[in-house]
Amino acid sequence: MKRAHAVLLAAAAFAAPVFGFDFRLVNTNDVDDLVNPATPAFYIGNNPSTIALDGDILYVGGFNNSGAPANQRIVKIIDVFNTRGRVVVPTSETLMPFNRGFTGMDIAGDRLLVNYDSGSRNTPNSLRLYNTAVPALNSPNLITASGVPSGEAPRGIAGPAFDFGFDGTGFNVGGTNQPLPAVLDFTTRPEGPVGLFPATLDTSLGATFYEPDAGGPNVRDFNAPFSLASTLWRDLDIHPTTGMIVGRAGNNVVIAKRAGSNATLQSVVQINNGTITGVLGQNVQIVNGTPDGDFIIYNDRRITGAQPFASVIKTIDDNGAAVTVNFFDVDGTTPYVFPDGVGLYDFSWDGDNQRLAIVDFATRRYWIFETVQPCGAADINSDGQVDFFDYLDFANAFGSECTGPGQPLPECQFSADFNNDGQVDFFDYLDFAAEFGRCS
Hints:
Blueprint: E1 9-11, E2 21-30, E3 47-54, E4 57-63, E5 70-72, E6 75-78, E7 85-88, E8 94-96, E9 102-108, E10 111-116, E11 127-131, E12 141-142, E13 161-163, E14 171-173, E15 176-178, E16 180-183, E17 194-195, E18 233-238, E19 245-249, E20 252-258, E21 265-271, E22 284-290, E23 293-299, H1 309-312, E24 313-316, E25 323-328, E26 345-350, E27 355-360, E28 365-371, H2 388-399, H3 426-439
Parallel strand pairs: 2-25
Antiparallel strand pairs: 1-25, 2-28, 3-4, 4-6, 5-8, 6-7, 9-10, 10-11, 11-12, 13-16, 14-15, 16-17, 18-19, 19-20, 20-21, 22-23, 23-24, 26-27, 27-28
């Protein structure tokens, strides 16, 4: 039987596992060098407010608490797990008003999508698209007020997302299928998400990809469950293969499932956390494709004061039901204890590498966790459970230096080359002992 975990967070899986989702810490560090006004070349603001993880690269944007307008940048941390080299994203420098900041990022392939809040609509560069394939990053394409429905550029307070369509195949733009940037206006406009052409971040080239539909609820009715008078959009994420849309509205959560492009929605689920209209930084992230399935993680931020991590972080499935996520230290077994913050966290999921990044506004620290694989490797005798018989079988194989099955000694029906590096040595024993301790 798997040991009980001391730190259990209500979390989500679309096919919920027995013991929840397990994550192991692989990296953590502060960003003190990026929030120091004395080093303006890499200054992101007083506090980190948004991140995007792409392999061994972490993009970080910040918030202005200085009391006056300040120049802020998006910094690209290169080799985040080792040397942590720093590069400023070109053209990202922004004269940020006081009490405003970068509010969201998303990555799809070689494109980085960035939002910032100027405090008003019609700020031409509040939404930016970068080409990350260029080593130094190229100049961004900028949104224009003329390219948005109603002739207004949405205020960049609601984080953006890439949309691969309801079936994950993308949209045909210029003869090729590709994801489209999607944005939400944070105020009470009824349109819901707006899809933008990626080459120019512009809808004037054609109709938006979220059309009103007379047949019933559709993506334009995304915010219908809530009173429009109190709906303040804060963040947006879209599932890369199912097209499910998740948004944060006044600290509530809206989950919309699509049956087709511009089609009626299959369902709209709302998680009512008590509408909170004046608290910023209410974020959401879909974590998809883990060994145990998918879940949604968000911060239930109702106040701006100090509050424990475990009381703020919520994890749910696509129907809004709570499930369990376990965050462990580097050993994969010890529950990780997060410091208290103010409830303002941002998230980034790197599905290709199965890593979840979390940044804390208050402590100016980020954490990168990776999924903990199922316990099948420690089940040496393949009887469906990890127990003392597996330990004995491994010990016998290790003592006989068995590198694979079928050797003369009976003990060699099992391999002691636990890490599959072609030799049996003490590292195999250490790796097996750690996995056995985690899974037994």
